[in-house]
Amino acid sequence: MADTNCLLLDVATRGMTGPDLQEELKLCEQSIPILFITGQRDATARLSLITQGAVDCLSKPYEPARGINHPDDAPIHKCN
């Protein structure tokens, strides 16, 4: 993960979900900016992910014109 600058994770994947992986990375002290995508329209869940450290949480289908926080705007912390 040393060369990983950002992760794009789906919220609802089979097995380990995106939020599960986010938590595992925190436990392993890996600081990697995460951008989530989701089909859910629940603003509370999206805010929760951002509060827990995600760069943003985009709705599917993704619309580039939405004016999101781009991963390039996030502080990038390379892993050791």
Please tell me about this protein's structure.
The protein is an alpha/beta fold. It has one domain (7-64): Rossmann fold (3-Layer(aba) Sandwich). It has two helices and three strands; from the N terminus they run E-H-E-H-E. The protein has helices at residues 18-27, 43-51, and strands at residues 7-10, 34-38, 56-59. It has a three-stranded parallel beta sheet, covered by helices on one side. Strand 1, helix 1 (18-27) and strand 2 form a beta-alpha-beta unit. The longest helix has 10 residues, at 18-27.
List keywords for this structure.
80 residues; 24% helix; 3-stranded parallel β-sheet; Rossmann fold; globular; 2 helices; disordered C terminus
Concise structural overview:
By secondary structure, this protein is α/β, with parallel strands linked by helices. It has two helices and three strands; from the N terminus they run E-H-E-H-E.
Task: Describe the secondary structure blueprint for this structure.
Elements: E1 7-10, H1 18-27, E2 34-38, H2 43-51, E3 56-59
Parallel strand pairs: 1-2, 2-3
Query: What percent of the residues sit in helical stretches (DSSP H or I)?
Result: 10-25%
**Number of helical regions:** 2
CATH fold title: Rossmann fold
Distance between the termini: 8 Å
Shape: globular
CATH superfamily: Response regulator
Major sheet attributes: 3 strands, parallel
What count of structural domains? 1
Rounded to the nearest angstrom, the radius of gyration is 12 Å
Element string (H = helix, E = strand): EHEHE
User: What CATH first level would be assigned?
Assistant: Alpha Beta
Overall pLDDT: 78
Secondary-structure-based class equals alpha/beta
The strand count comes to 3
